Queue: 2 jobs
Job 1
Amino acid sequence: MRYVPLHVHSEYSLLDGAIRNKELIEFSQEHNFDAVAVTDHGVMYGAIELYRLGKDKQFKVILGCEFYIINGDIQDEKDNNAERYHLVLLAKNNTGYQNLVKLVSIAHIQGFYRRPRINKELLETHSEGLICLSACIQGEISKQIINGNKEGAKKTAQYYKNLFKDDFYIELQDHNLPDEKKANAELINIAKDLNIEMVITNDSHYLKKQDADWHDTLLCINTNALKEEEKRFKFLPNTEFYVKTIEELRESFKWLDSETFERAIENTAVVADKCHVIIKMGENILPSFDVPTNYTIPSYLGYLVKKGLSQRYKEITPEIEERFKYELEIINKMGFDAYFLIVWDFINYAKTHGVPVGPGRGSAAGSLVAYALGITDLDPIKHHLLFERFLNPERIS
């Protein structure tokens, strides 16, 4: 059987996860996992590090996030105390990765109340390219089962199946928790009734079983508590929240019939096979700039520079004309036309709206174009400053 851990919290689940990405990949390779997914709580701080490590180690990594989702308006204070459910989303392709980034950003910028939150309206808008897992016992379906609302759980499962089609999976977990035992039987029934595939996962917060104690220390730092305190947040004495092998999962799920177990294990690899994200590294990715009709980005930059030079100098000497044409040629050759317009735009806005800004610093003061645009206020001609210290085709950075 093939197996892929799909529910893992790295050290980027700050003071909650205790798994280093490099060690996770090495561990996964040692145990012949096909791939591994990292699903940090509400954040993607570690995604690029994980992606780079995966490429270096020639090992497939899956970029994901375990979101906090509410039934309500993330910006309405009356919904601040709405119950937060967990939901795991994995990037199936580049569109999915971009949607993950958008959802995480919105959750922090607009939806933050104790935790970064999204809602179903946002999920519907940004669902393309994503695979959805029902999460742990803090997921909405499991919570409804535990609370005795089996019909509500089935309705919620149907909602996610309608939204994600065959990319929605019911998660089965068993860390020897009473609530899991209560939820799992009904989760299986719902999956069979609605024809939803299942995956077996282990909510992994530390890499190995013996790491449970120092993970507990991490939780104490998180909650400002002492280890000897009885009434504090802790996983102990439970030590099951580590990255398990197939053999260890088989032991945890010995109550489950072998056919269902093997299919749910194999489905983790099926999920992994669906995921193909390619992130171009080492390239400058700059936004474009909307220019007025009848202009291109380079021609509009040239227009603004000439306009600015006429305001900066009483006379445009041959030296000045040769210099700004040279700079514009280099800027265009290096692909920075839009970059200059973007910087001009926000600095111009600041200067015309009473926002303190400038007068510019560092090697940018050597640019006549920057001076003409008002980005800097130091005359590079008068002070014999070199443009090449700022932009140089031989030094791409």
Job 2
Amino acid sequence: MTETEGAVTTVAEIVAYALARAQAGETDEALSLLHEALASVPANAALHSALGDIHRDLGAMDEAFRYYERALILDPDDISIRLNYASGLKARGEYIRAANMQIVLAEAVPDYLPAHVNLGNTWVDLGRLDEAVACFERAIALEPEHPKANFHKGLCLLQQGRLAEGWPFYEWRWHPDISSFLPRPFPVPAWSGDDLRGRTILLHAEQGLGDTLQFVRFVATVLRRGAARVLVEVQPEVRGLLAQSLDGERVAVIDRGPDFPYVESLPPYDVHCPLLSLPLALGIDLGAIPADVPYLGAEPRLVETYTHPIAAAAATVGEGRPLKVGLVWAGGGAHDRDHLRSLCLADLAPLALVRDVLFVSLQKGPAADQASAPPSGMALLTLDIDDFADTAAIVAALDLVITVDTSVAHLAGAMARPVWVLLPLRPDWRWLENREDNPWYPTARLFRQRHRDDWTDVVARVARQLEHVTASPRT
């Protein structure tokens, strides 16, 4: 214990205060408080555990694990310390050890909810979704309104293709413990699938660009449900593309205004629905996914603009008719799983060994700079790309798109263009599990990691398939 302004402060109070300061962004102050206390009581497990928590949140997992390891030695019976240590094991890639420790903990203390949630997430990382769902269900039995258990159960069900079961749980994404995509203060009711005749519905984007491109397919379904008018509010990067594809007598695509996320400046509407809540409202199951492609298309005059430089570059590659292939090797850095889905352009070097291929960079963001130094032997064309209308026009002029899990995968699929998607061992739910095709996009082919963080095998399989395509006659 320490003396602070005449009052006795316990270690528990110091830990709670330090963690609160760290949560508020005052990390240096939090670390200083904990280290000062640790100087007085160096054998206190709670202080080591709290230091582990802060370093974990900073992304310094090796340092965090050392603190967790010390805390466990000091107090091997403390439930939360054992749970943190298991989380540290998982962060180090020791998933089986983590799972075994979490199993023991969940069995020893069956009413300890975090043990079931953490074990469920470890099973997800190991691709064992049935076991994960069982863990989340045990957690929900202990606390029916637990947001993470409900949400993560929903993600598992969706990835298993159990869509009708999963959509209600996916609505937990609006909880502040899950994400920053919080509900907006719409002055009208949310649409839940009731009669739309004579009414205007606002459909609004809520997450990433890929989500928007994937779920605008439901605009046609909503129209068939009798909506008098559909307003589609989307991100400015895709507004032009969607307007040329969807605008019509009963559909208007509108840009998020400068006052987003406020709603006062929107045109009049009677009901609203987030784009990713449409499958729940429409009752969409795996066999009912509207996959009539293309539902997005490029502007013909813009396609002509890009066709000429691509054709000119292709004429300098190999003999005959080179294959024109778009490449995207990295996602946006803001995605919380971007480190799992992104590569470097250098990782695609084996593709450069395939003859008679012109590669065209569709990469945006900081990773686009890598195109200035492509792998040896790779004929790589870079073009100016302003927005998704440009990207769509380029995609329309290509024979194939090869991409990691980014919005371009959704764009190419929505345009009914051949697209090969490179996926991590634990992919996003929409790519389902254990299949090379995808019901959302009939023209997509999936290349999945067989081992965690191993892109070498994935790229090798893509290169072999690319060789097969180039060796086949093309019209």
